[in-house]
Design brief:
The complex is a heterotrimer of chains A (about 400), B (about 325) and C (about 300). Chain A is of the alpha/beta class and about 400 residues long. Chain A has helices at about 5-25, 45-60, 80-95, 105-120, 150-160, 175-185, 205-215, 225-240, 260, 280-295, 300-320, 325-335, and strands at about 30-35, 65, 65-75, 100, 120-125, 140-145, 165-170, 190-200, 220-225, 245-250, 270, 345, 355-365, 370-380. In chain B, helix 1 runs antiparallel to helix 6 (about 165-190), helix 2 packs across helix 11 and helix 6 runs antiparallel to helix 9 (about 215-240). Classes of the chains: A alpha/beta (about 400), B mainly alpha (about 325), C mainly alpha (about 300).
Chain lengths: ~400, ~325, ~300
């Protein structure tokens, strides 16, 4: 009997602990399940997203519309299967009111189904894959960031404006990569010297850069977020191509990677809807506060997530704190009556934004730090290209 | 000293049977709790535990009893899951079709793979099973039509009429399957087949000299264990609604092995304890510290060095001739 | 498909093969002499990269970073062996696999605790940052330096094993461990030296790779798997086998990754070719290994049977 006791005890104990963890669930608090990629080469993006969101929460007085907020932070490790488990846990065990965040599009695609099926409100503060703007759009999805193609479309327009005739395209082989290339080609009217897809988080681009060299293009266009961008541009430089061939990009050289790259990326062009040097008062407040609090220049990932928090705050305030009324909350979110750091903001019927697109150049800022400088607006009040396929 | 092979397997003293029975009853009570507390998440949580237990029991058949250390069994786990995924994508949703095809495909692949692998021993066997698993891992990564690297969200689960996708039904059928497989393993090990298998572990040349060719037995055991893993994969796809090549990663194979070791190799119920134990320890550590792999890694090392009979072996009454751990110093 | 591309990729394959050799040489010796499977070899590689990156950022000297890293990991290997890994020498391979797997989990998290989750970066020294001209091809100087350094190390290892007394002891130990011990050699010290040597080589590989790849937790595992493939193909315990195996695997993997997609692009669209291509190329390596093992389970250059 003695020998059996420990095993029986531990078994019961374990089950008891397990039982207790979900008994302690129900609380009168607005629960946000925030999931981003917080480890690996893209960790800086996820970290910016989380920090931006929390800063937005702070600027809303630590509450959304007067309601106490609990943010559950989780790392998806860029693993779609882990993300699905986490989101299922958010929905079933933690019973969150909103799932927010998501850095990468492959993760986003994996969790889209459980989110749509359970009609859980989703606030996307980065990844905006094309299928979710088109035929798989849903009334409970709110992407306050952007639709992946939009930024690429702006850069494509810029390439046409600049008169480039022969551009070499490179991106990682997943939804966002395809969106980035597709968007560029949609607005770029010249020839494509090459279209190459590499593995996500592939560390070694020497083979592809050698092929690029052989193709001798007017310009190179890449989409390499996080560590991928750092690896790429280092190897691009090692091959002696930096400065020789103009480098166009989206989401590759920004606040999350420039601190590591420093002068290596000077002159690179990128496209987005937000620039750190935008001079509207909301943005200036955000940028100054972020730099003071976190000691680094915010990237667009931080700006998007900040907007996400501000949007939630405005929506819950609008419905008088009655966040349990899901339909009212969704309507208030759809109305998007808040001041975005990017300036004009409106939701389209598929839950994606209509906003202006710009291009930027990596250049020293007023304080001599390597940052982005706004060059020009490329596409004003630009919707995404998939809203027509959305059945809503 | 009596040759442990011909001695009858000692009836595990009553206490271990009682503990095993008690645990299975606890597992059976989970759906009751879920229904009363209206909490479906428990079913997912403990369901996952049962799935890993099933896979570990499968691996134990060859690892614990046959001393065949396969570092590639996760590939069969993946086959089971992907059968559901691929058939669903093609619109073939009959649950029985999924199940039978999963078992059939697994056997179809396990026979040649096993045949090739079992020509080698020791380290080479570990490596070649790993190589095959990696091979198939990349096969599934390349299947863009079924999600490739990013995995596949299943639009349809295995169709069993009104019970399709019902978490209670999935959980209970999983539990019943585990019990059946445990019983099957128990009978198999005690049978002549099991005798040959365990003998081949101790001294294969002697066995062959006695006129029993061990190789066919080992191959059959390998295929059976593969099918049990595939069964676990089938349930995994239905429980989570998501399949991806990561299910076939060598890290999963290594986890299965750890579960078998932790539970107690060469015992029938040991792997269940190992699976439940490892998952509970992982979750327990996660609540305590963000850096839980530090503790888990250290625990695994310590378990290997000191806990040679596994947790289940610890509970054996003293004086019992436990199935000896795989410790023949194979080269 | 130009000659330049082919040449460039062949050189890349050679460079990758050299790195695999540094990893494989240590691992095959450890396995051959001590019959010890060490899955944590990839973690030693990872520590080498982290130490080198840290030393480089504090001292600014690249050469110091590489050498100190190699020495540190050598000492780390000796320390681990002394501290308790030797218990596992007498245990079954399965136990070794599982215990070192536990070490892998531990090491990856340890690195996260000390250096954080995000990758850290190491720069190649300025004098190696541009390209050299090889037969009309612009090839990154740093990678060329790796090839040269690796070949020098291979030469040094050859001289050590074939021309020195301790090398003789190592070869003897690989052939017949018990006899060497019976002849009065302190087998424990020999084992420790071999383990530390293997560790040092892995650390060197990690340090060299720092400027090319991002230094991050878990960077050792993909390399480890390929290293295991190399030593199994080459023959366990055989340095010569490790060298040939490494070059072959390095070339097949690199060239496969580039040329299979190109070949596939004739029939598939770029995205599809890019997805299937690398997977097929990876499969090629494992297929090759399975075929070799099916016919020659001891590998291509096996040592004679040990006593």
């Amino acid at each position: 009997m003695k020998k059996m006791f420990p095993s029986v005890l531990s078994a019961s104990g374990a089950l008891l602990i397990a039982a207790l963890t979900w008994v302690g669930a129900a609380n009168a608090q607005f629960k946000v399940g925030f999931m981003a990629t917080l480890s690996g080469p893209a960790a800086a993006l996820g970290q910016d997203m989380y920090d931006g969101f929390m800063l937005g929460l702070e600027h809303s007085g630590g509450q959304f519309g007067g309601v106490e907020v609990e943010v559950i932070r989780e790392d998806d490790q860029l693993k779609p299967d882990l993300a699905v488990q986490t989101v299922n846990r958010f929905i079933e065990r933690d019973q969150v009111d909103v799932v927010a965040g998501v850095t990468f599009s492959n993760v986003m695609m994996a969790i889209a189904k459980p989110l749509a099926d359970s009609n859980t409100i989703f606030m996307g503060t980065n990844a905006g894959p094309a299928p979710l703007a088109g035929e798989r759009c849903a009334p409970n999805f709110f992407f306050v960031s952007y639709q992946n193609d939009q930024q690429a479309e702006g850069v494509g327009k810029y390439a046409t404006n600049q008169g480039f005739k022969n551009v070499y395209l490179m991106a990682p082989n997943y939804q966002a990569g395809k969106d980035a290339v597709g968007g560029f080609k949609r607005y770029y009217k010249g020839d494509v010297a090459g279209e190459v897809y590499t593995r996500v988080n592939q560390p070694d681009y020497s083979a592809e850069i050698a092929q690029l060299q052989a193709a001798n293009p007017d310009a190179v266009y890449v989409f390499y977020p996080g560590g991928m961008g750092i690896n790429f541009i280092k190897q691009f430089r090692q091959a002696g191509l930096l400065g020789k061939i103009p480098l166009l990009s989206v989401s590759s050289f920004d606040g999350s990677t420039l601190p590591a790259l420093k002068e290596t990326a000077l002159g690179a062009i990128s496209g987005s809807f937000w620039g750190v040097d935008f001079d509207n008062p909301v943005n200036q407040k955000f940028v100054t506060a972020f730099e003071n609090k976190y000691g680094r220049i915010p990237s667009q990932y931080a700006a998007q997530s900040y907007d996400g928090a501000m949007l939630l705050n405005s929506a819950i305030k609008k419905i008088g704190g009655q966040y349990k009324d899901k339909n009212a909350l969704m309507a208030a979110l759809r109305a998007a009556e808040f001041d975005s750091v990017r300036g004009d903001f409106k939701f389209n019927k598929n839950g994606f934004p209509i906003h202006n697109m710009y291009v930027f150049e990596v250049a020293p800022d007023a304080k001599g730090r390597v940052s982005h400088k706004t060059l020009q607006m490329t596409l004003p009040a630009h919707p995404d290209s998939y809203v027509g396929q959305c059945p809503l | 000293m009596a040759d442990p092979i011909t001695a009858p397997i000692p009836v595990r003293a009553d206490r271990r049977v009682w503990v095993a029975g008690f645990l299975m009853v606890l597992f059976a009570l989970v759906p009751l709790y879920a229904w009363r507390a209206d909490d479906v998440y428990v079913l997912t949580y403990f369901g996952r535990m049962l799935i890993f237990a099933l896979a570990a029991v499968g691996l134990n058949l060859i690892l614990g009893f046959g001393a065949m250390a396969s570092l590639g069994h996760a590939m069969y786990f993946g086959f089971g899951a992907y059968t559901v995924g691929i058939l669903s994508t093609w619109g073939l949703t009959n649950g029985w079709l999924h199940l039978s095809l999963a078992l059939a495909v697994t056997a179809f692949i396990a026979i040649p793979v096993g045949w090739i692998a079992l020509r080698t021993r020791g380290m080479a066997f570990i490596m070649i099973t790993l190589a095959f698993a990696q091979l198939f891992f990349y096969v599934f990564v390349s299947l863009r039509a079924f999600g490739g690297d990013e995995g596949l969200s299943l639009t349809e689960l295995s169709g069993f009429g009104a019970l399709t996708g019902n978490k209670y039904a999935i959980y209970l059928s999983l539990l019943i399957t585990l019990v059946l497989v445990l019983w099957f393993t128990h009978r198999l090990v005690k049978s002549r087949f099991g005798l040959v298998l365990r003998a081949s572990r101790h001294n294969e040349s002697r066995l062959n000299a006695l006129g029993t060719a061990s190789q066919p037995y080992r191959l059959v055991a390998y295929v059976l264990s593969a099918q049990i893993c595939a069964l676990a994969g089938f349930f995994m796809a239905n429980l989570t609604g998501f399949v991806s090549p990561s299910l076939m990663s060598w890290l999963i194979s290594a986890e299965f092995m750890v579960m078998v070791l932790l539970g107690g190799m060469g015992t029938v119920f040991g792997p269940v304890i190992g699976a439940a134990g490892l998952l509970l320890i992982e979750d327990g550590l996660k609540t305590v510290t963000e850096h839980w792999p530090l503790v888990l890694g250290a625990l695994i090392v310590l378990a290997v060095i000191w806990l040679r009979q596994g947790l289940w072996g610890l509970m054996a009454p003293s004086g019992d001739t436990k199935a000896s751990p795989v410790d023949q110093g194979e080269h | 498909m130009t000659l330049n591309l082919f040449l460039g990729q062949a050189l890349n394959g050679l460079q990758f093969g050299i790195l695999l050799f540094l990893m494989a040489a240590g691992l095959t010796l450890v396995f051959g002499i001590m019959s010890f499977v060490n899955l944590a070899h990839g973690s030693l590689y990872m520590f080498g990269a982290y130490f080198a990156a840290t030393v480089a950022s504090y001292s600014g000297s690249f050469v110091l970073a590489i050498f100190s890293s190699m020495v540190l990991i050598f000492l780390l290997g000796a320390a681990i062996d002394r501290a308790g890994l030797s218990i596992l020498h007498r245990r079954s391979h399965l136990d070794q696999v599982l215990a070192t797997f536990g070490l892998v989990l531990f090491s990856n998290e340890l690195v996260r605790v000390v250096w954080g989750n995000a990758p850290i970066y190491m720069d190649a020294p300025d004098y190696l940052s541009d390209a050299v001209n090889i037969f009309g091809l612009n090839y990154p100087a740093y990678r060329f330096a790796i090839i040269v350094a690796g070949l020098l190390v291979a030469l040094g290892l050859y001289l050590l094993i074939e021309r020195t007394r301790i090398g003789m002891l190592i070869r003897a130990g690989a052939s017949n461990r018990t006899m060497v011990s019976a002849l009065g050699v302190n087998i424990a010290w020999l084992n420790r030296f071999v383990f530390a040597l293997g560790a040092g080589l892995a650390g060197l590989a990690g340090a060299l790779v720092g400027p090319i790849l991002s230094v991050e937790p878990g960077m050792g595992e993909p390399v480890l798997i390929l290293t295991l493939v190399v030593i199994v193909i080459g023959g366990i315990g055989s340095i010569r086998g490790a060298f040939f195996g490494a070059i072959v695997v390095g070339l097949v993997d690199t060239m496969g990754r580039v040329f299979v997609p190109i070949w596939l692009r004739a029939t598939f669209d770029p995205a599809m070719a890019a997805a299937i291509g690398p997977a097929l190329a990876s499969m090629l390596v494992y297929l090759m290994m399975a075929v070799i093992l099916a016919f020659k389970p001891e590998g291509l250059f096996p040592l004679r049977a040990r006593g």
